[in-house]
Design goal:
The complex is a heterodimer of chains A (about 325) and B (about 300). Chain A has 13 helices and 4 strands. Chain A has about 325 residues and is mostly helical. Chain A has 2 domains: about 5-230, no CATH class; about 235-330, no CATH class. Chain A has a two-stranded antiparallel ribbon with strand order 1-2. Chain A has a two-stranded antiparallel sheet with strand order 3-4. In chain A, a hairpin with a 5-residue loop joins strand 3 and strand 4. Chain A is globular. Chain B has about 300 residues and is mostly helical. Helices cover about 75% and strands about 5% of the residues of chain B. Chain B has helices at about 1-30, 40-55, 60-90, 95-115, 140-160, 165-175, 175-180, 185-210, 220-235, 240-260, 265-280, 290-300, and strands at about 130-135, 135-140. In chain B, helix 1 (about 1-30) runs antiparallel to helix 10 (about 240-260). The termini of chain B are far apart. Classes of the chains: A mainly alpha (about 325), B mainly alpha (about 300). At the A-B interface, helix 4, helix 10, helix 12 and helix 13 of A face helix 3, helix 4, helix 9, helix 11 and helix 12 of B.
């Protein structure tokens, strides 16, 4: 296998790892905390920009890119800082958006926040270099060849994936996770048990924000550049498709969904013979993803690998979403 | 002072176009409880249809405007009866519906890209020259757009206020269940609502394209939130509220543009955020009734 194909494969592997972490983050926010976050991509972008600002060094007057603050911190600090920024952003937005209100209004509110920030960042070049974005983020290890760097980076990414997997499983399978799922189904009942739904959901939402920012950090350090083009509002939709197709609330389902959407749909369309124009490929990707979402929401809203039924001692199986999904299934 | 008056002029103009779009959107949302994100994509699609009719087929621009309106009706009704309706009848909650609508928005947008390419287009109605009224100076095109917008609003008002069907539409848009209990055939009214709001959507899309001089397949994003902001400010399903909302948004964005030129939409977004989170029933509501509705809605995940 030539070096180029190996590198391509490693790139895909790294992207997959990044997307899996991001989808778990979104699934925590959506499946466990119950907030449909249409502005999700903003959290990933926040993490990416944080890493960029903390790796590029102080902005130079008359330099080719302008940003409001910069320094150089040694590795893993930018990534940890990115998680802190993601968490803070989630906290601030969560405080305002969560609460007893229409779920679609919450979703749209988050969409608006992400579009607002996108507009401000794009139009104000002094903040984060506007539409050109930031580039020239240094690689993690300077002395490796391209393919070796690819292996190392993929390794680091998947080591993180394993850590995040453990974290997400521990949260889901814990008594706290069960309470959160209960609150998702019937807020009043959970509250009557003394569970502070708003506070606990906010904690999960913040954890989701931190993980989303982490995915951005890993991604940007690999890509070395980040611009508003990478975080338009529709990007959230790709992640949403992955979790809807794979299975909301199911850790492995999300992995399957990400794998399917990223490799089969996004990459697969580029290989389709007969389409020369690159614009056409991008359009087809979006159309395919959107159609997939509608198809899955109609025929299999639980996803391919649905949330596992939990059996309790009394013997009666309880799914977290049985009441409503039964209405959606014929 | 002159800048402020000028800004108010621009604001009124923006409001005229936005009013049509907002009324259409709020009718749809109020009557069927569907947050139709794809509404703005239909607007863009109708602009493209008008472009195709005038540039390629050579149709008279005013005729093209009407045809584009009808195209909007057809597209919107197809979306409701083909997609949203079945989902809603199955018991899909607002989550699922809004995701379906986001999918439709993306499908329409990218189909437009495939059909027309990624370039910029412009609608030409053959109007030029300026008109001055007091301190406000508008171009002929702007005056024409405002007249079209205003006359549509007037016709709509007459229809909704003074005809029996119009009252049924208003009733269904305000509270569909209550209307049904009063003997209104909501299914037929629903069809009429989507046809009517689709028509308004089409007309407003063409007017927007005329206003912004150039448009592309991606233009939906530009007015996505302006339309929602105007409709939300007025309260879901409230037609006159939507008109008021459009006026507020129009003035707010233009007055903000004096202070922050590149960021005038941010004012609209901020207003919309506030409304969604604090006063979901619209600026003039109390907010309490909608909270109860949200409590019930909160019980269903999807």
């Amino acid at each position: 296998m030539s070096g180029a194909w190996v590198f391509y494969g490693l790139t895909l592997l790294t992207f997959l790892g990044v997307n899996v972490i991001a989808c778990w983050a979104l699934d925590l926010q959506f499946g466990t905390a119950g907030l449909l976050n249409f502005g999700f991509i903003l959290f990933q972008a926040a993490g990416a920009y944080t890493v960029a600002l903390l790796s590029l060094g102080a902005p130079q007057a008359g330099g080719y890119q302008a940003y409001f603050f910069g320094t150089t911190l040694p590795w893993p600090l930018p990534w940890i800082a990115a998680m802190a920024v993601g968490g803070a952003l989630a906290f601030v937005t969560g405080i305002f958006v969560m609460g007893p209100r229409r779920r679609d209004y919450q979703a749209i509110a988050m969409l608006i926040v992400s579009i607002m920030v996108y507009t401000v960042v794009s139009n104000e070049p002094r903040l984060l270099n506007g539409t050109s974005g930031l580039s020239g983020i240094p690689q993690l290890f300077q002395k490796l060849g391209l393919v070796s760097y690819g292996w190392v980076y993929a390794g680091i990414t998947w080591a993180l994936v394993a850590l995040v997997y453990v974290l997400v499983r521990r949260i889901r399978e814990s008594p706290w996770g069960r309470l959160l799922r209960a609150a998702r189904e019937n807020r009043t009942a959970a509250e009557s048990l003394g569970f502070n739904v708003r506070k606990e959901s906010l904690i999960i939402y913040v954890i989701g924000g931190m993980l989303a920012a982490l995915s951005g950090a890993v991604l940007v350090q690999f890509l070395s550049a980040w611009a508003p083009n990478s975080w338009q509002y529709a990007e959230t939709f790709v992640y949403l498709t992955a979790i809807v197709v794979g299975g909301t609330g199911s850790t492995l389902g999300v992995v399957l969904g990400t794998l399917l959407i990223q490799t089969v749909v996004v990459e697969g369309v580029t290989f389709y013979p007969g389409f020369a124009a690159p614009d056409l490929v991008a359009s087809l990707q979006w159309i395919t993803i959107s159609v997939l979402v509608i198809v899955f929401l109609w025929w299999r809203p639980r996803g391919i690998l649905p949330e596992r039924k939990h059996r309790f001692e009394e013997g009666k199986p309880q799914t977290a979403s049985s009441a409503v999904v039964d209405r959606l299934d014929k | 002072m002159n800048t402020i008056v000028e800004a108010c002029g621009f604001g009124l103009f923006d409001a005229a176009i936005l009013a049509l779009a907002a009324v259409g959107f709020t009718l749809q949302f109020g009557a069927s409880n569907v947050f139709n994100l794809a509404y703005v994509a239909v607007m863009t699609a109708c602009a493209f249809i008008a472009y195709w009719l005038t540039a390629t087929v050579g149709l008279d621009p005013w005729l093209a405007l009407i045809v584009a309106g009808f195209a909007g009706s057809v597209l919107s009704s197809a979306m409701y009866f083909g997609l949203y309706g079945p989902f809603v009848r199955r018991g899909a909650g607002p989550f699922v519906v809004v995701m379906v609508s986001l999918s439709l928005l993306l499908i329409l947008t990218y189909v437009l890209e495939i059909l027309f390419g990624a370039g910029y287009f412009s609608l030409n109605f053959g109007l030029s020259g300026r008109v001055a009224i007091g301190a406000l100076v508008w171009s002929q095109l702007e005056v024409v757009i405002m007249c079209v917008g205003a006359s549509c609003v007037l016709l709509l008002h007459l229809f909704l206020r003074y005809t029996r069907v119009g009252k049924m539409v208003r009733a269904t848009a305000g509270d569909a269940d209550l209307a049904r209990n009063c003997g209104v055939d909501t299914r037929k009214v629903m069809m009429l609502v989507w046809l009517l709001s689709g028509f308004l959507c089409g007309i407003s899309g063409v007017l927007y394209a005329l206003d912004t001089t150039v448009f592309s397949f991606d233009s939906s994003g530009d007015f996505l939130l302006l339309v929602f902001a105007a409709a939300a400010l007025g309260g879901v399903g409230e037609v006159y509220g939507a008109l008021l909302g459009a006026l507020c948004i129009g003035l707010a964005t233009e007055l903000t543009a004096i202070v922050l030129p590149g960021l005038k939409e941010v004012a609209a977004f901020g207003l919309l955020l506030v409304v969604l989170l604090v006063r979901p029933g619209g600026l003039l509501s109390t907010g309490r009734a909608v909270e109860e509705e949200a409590q019930e809605a909160g019980a269903a995940t999807w």
